Structure formats: structure tokens, C-alpha cells
Amino acid sequence: MLMAHPTVLRTLVERYETLRALADLRSVDTEDRSDDMVDTVGAVGPHALAGRHQGAVADGPSVLEQLRDTIYTLCVSTGTREIGPALAAAREHISRAAFTATGATEERMAA
To answer: Can you spell out the DSSP letters for 15-67?
Structure first.
């Protein structure tokens, strides 16, 4: 399976965490509605890939809409359908890439 570049995944994970914190601060009840509206790919319509997830957090679409778009993109990028497994897969891929990069750097230094 193709996997997004670790830098892209890192950006998406950071964006998810920021938007989730903003949603919580704004008292948006995403916890109670997570199964229906926010945390599954099926809850997000086709508009999610319109590129809005790269806009400013405070401007444009609502925080909840940006959160949905980011969740959708994370799920598609990791081949999952829910945010929990998507975050786990993204973090694993980021860790693996960092470990591989560290090992490659050490090999070059030893040569």
C-alpha cells in the first residue's frame, strides 16, 4: 500500500491535534458525536478533498469542518476508516521513517 510521506503525515497529525484542541476549547461537543460525525471516514462527504485542510485554522471553514477534513485526509493517507487507527498508523510510519533516516545517517558517517 502507498503511504504518504512522513512529513505530510506529521503535518496532518499536528493539524488534527490543534483542531481537536480548538474544538474542545470552543465547547464543540465532538466527543459525544464522534461515531456519527467526526471520527469516521463515512461521515465526511466528498467535499473533504477540496484542499480546505491546508487553509488557516482560524479563517475560512469552521473548526469542526476543518477537523472533519483533516480526519478524512488522515484516514485516506493511511488506508484506514477511523481516526484512532489512522493516528496510530501515521505515528508508526513517522517513527519508522525517523529510525531509518537515523540509521542511514550513521552508516554514511561510518563510511
So the answer is: HHHHHHHHHHHTT--TTTTIIIIISBGGGS-GGGGSSGGGS-SSSSS-HHHHH
